[in-house]
């Protein structure tokens, strides 16, 4: 019925359709001249809005997983939701760097206080959780916190752009969003990994060290760091990593510094193994070798090693396992796991080529050791 | 673990659906009239109706794709595998990850071949890599 009506209606105006369309074309053309940018603005705004909705869902999902995991592992007497909400708004202020001398130690102190505060909060939220579970819960909450921050920052610029009708704010946001979304998705994936205590890509260095030190006596050398004395290729190697299997990065810089000082600087080489960000086009799990301290993060641990190797003139070699940012905080990929054996072979080659038999070397496996024992 | 966790799906406005539907009907009508005009040797009208029809179709397809994109919001945790290896004979058993598993953990199960202790030698996820262009 409606179809027939429409058909007859359009057929009636069919003869006049030509000039109507012509007029319509000119109207659209003129409208685009004056309002083209505005139309583009609303198209981008809609795209940003879509991503923002997704980010909000990821943030809410992160909060939900954190609360559920705390309830499951920590057996709290009261609902932890309020504490989790407070935790998600937590911030740490960087020390002033107007006078840069000594800023590293101030930063270290702030990070230590932050770490202690996080652990205390988690202990209060989850009284029944053991040490490993506390570390994993802390990591879970940190991932939820990261998702909350990403959501809030994007929302800030979205609302600001909408309020000021600024094309440039929305344009920058729309252009950066694919990268930001990748990171947010990675954090969302990390949430489950942390909640269940699964190894993540960042733990590649810790995995290499764990493989080397397995079966040997371990001792604690620095905060959350263990070391084992392992004979490798006729040399004595001090192999160190963060203490697992809880989510932990420890203080590897402090540990390396202590080992060098314990040996009065008589270390033939330091070999640092870490996961590193790959460039697009490179293969995940590719192993590369270089020099320098391959320790990420805020730079405190890297600084400590650099200060010590400079004092004793110890050569530093680095072996990296390549992965992208998403892989680094998601459950460990098979390629990265398999790359650990290739990295061990590379370390052995470096030892054979760069040191003599009977020398002492330090091998440091850097990264979050969640889901990796020793 | 590999179970799909569905996120909340957003409600699509009925108005949007009605607009898409009407645009689609009008677009098809326009194409139909253009064919009729073409058969009646009215080439000018046929061309105009064809252009209008295709523009309408493109707009409704775009709007529909946007709505579909909104529906698919879900976090799918990848399947994580745990490899358990025998210390003595190297026998390997692969199963899904269970909470509490960690690399180098000694498990209670004994090797079905030599009855020796077994340990977790690997925990990983498998990802099917998208094929990259060959010249890269």
What would you call the shape of chain B? rod-shaped
CATH homologous superfamily classification of the largest domain in chain A = Peptidyl-tRNA hydrolase
**Most extensive interface:** A-B, 43 and 43 residues
Q: Which fold name corresponds to the CATH topology of the largest domain in chain A? A: Rossmann fold
- Pairing-aware structural class of the strands and helices of chain B? alpha+beta
Helix/strand/pairing class of chain A, anyone? alpha/beta
- Straight-line distance between termini of chain A: 77 Å
Count the beta strands of chain B. 6
- Name the assembly state: heterodimer
Question: Rg of chain B, please?
Answer: 29 Å
- Model regions low in confidence, pLDDT < 50 over at least 5 residues of chain B: 1-10
What percentage of residues of chain A falls in helices of 4 or more residues? Answer: 55-70%
Helix content bin of chain B: 40-55%
Q: Return the string of H and E elements of chain B.
A: EHHEEEEE
Which strand order do you get reading across the main beta sheet of chain A?
1-2-3-7-4-6-5
- Count of individual domains of chain A: 2
What's the overall average pLDDT of chain A, rounded? 91
What topology does this entry show?
The complex is a heterodimer of chains A (374) and B (136).
Chain A: H1 2-13, H2 17-74, H3 81-88, H4 103-125, H5 131-164, H6 167-196, H7 204-213, E1 218-222, E2 225-232, E3 235-242, H8 252-262, E4 269-277, E5 287-291, H9 300-312, E6 316-323, H10 325-328, H11 334-354, E7 360-365
Parallel strand pairs in A: 3-7, 4-6, 4-7
Antiparallel strand pairs in A: 1-2, 2-3, 5-6
Helix pairs in contact in A: 2-5, 2-6, 4-5, 5-6, 7-11, 8-9
Chain B: E1 5-6, H1 14-39, H2 43-71, E2 74-75, E3 80-86, E4 92-96, E5 106-110, E6 117-125
Antiparallel strand pairs in B: 1-2, 3-4, 3-6, 5-6
Helix pairs in contact in B: 1-2
